[in-house]
Amino acid sequence: AMKGASTENMKHADSQVNALDIIPNGTILAAGGYQHIRLYDMNYSYPMINFDGVTKNVTRVGFQEDGKWMFTGGEDCRVRIWDMSTQNPACKRMFDCLTPVNAVCLHPNQVELAIGSQGGSVYLWDVKSDVHEQLIPEVEASIQDIAISPNGQYMAAVNNKGNCYIWSLSNSANSETQLTQTDPKLRIEAHKKYALRCKFSPDSSLLVTCSGDGTARIYKTDTFQLHAELKIEKYWMWDAVFSNDSKYLFTASSDGHARLWKIETK
What we know:
There is one protein chain. This protein is mainly beta and 266 residues long. The chain has a domain of 127 residues: 7 Propeller (Methylamine Dehydrogenase, Chain H). It is 0% helix and 53% strand. The chain contains no helices and 23 strands. The strands form 6 sheets. A 4-stranded antiparallel sheet has the order 1-2-3-4, with no helix packed on it. A 4-stranded antiparallel sheet has the order 5-6-7-8, with no helix packed on it. The chain has a 4-stranded antiparallel sheet with strand order 9-10-11-12, with no helix packed on it. A hairpin with a 5-residue loop joins strand 9 and strand 10.
């Protein structure tokens, strides 16, 4: 079995870490926790910037592809856009959901954010025009995670009932003023228990879902039929991410282990 070694430890006092992301140029790490958003220089152990004024848990952080702005979402029911062009990043735009935000994902067009809320709504928000659309795939079900394929063709969302919803995406006829068009494609009964995460592979050919049932399930996006199931007995499968070549999958589970799986493509 392959083994990994820690190369650096970042200090994150007074809070657990809920979300992490690295700016595309690889120089800054963003960490979201309870009432904290912190930025770290990748060469140092202590945060270089602490964001003030955030309440409750920050559940998602991420960066625009050029690192010009950062987005965050959290239990305060808000998604924020932070201007990263200055030495003291500030919130320049905010989207208010009615319920806590569990998931935020940036569209490949670098303009729209897909948002999943605890109240069961999926929002598509244009951060430039401030136009948004609300979708409710299933009543009385919390959206736990949301993902958009790198080729911009599909959007997926999983909920606390174990279901995964897929939408086909297409460009608006007037891309300057209108949002990406969404068309419901199918519902997958992905898990019998709580679904936690969904991710597309970098080549957009695969979708993985993770669950409290201890499984990660991989679907081929040409048919969305189940391709493989990865299982760990008695533990929750909390998260998964594909390697850059889409041939391997990393998973993290409640037994405290991260695992590397090779994906059979036949």
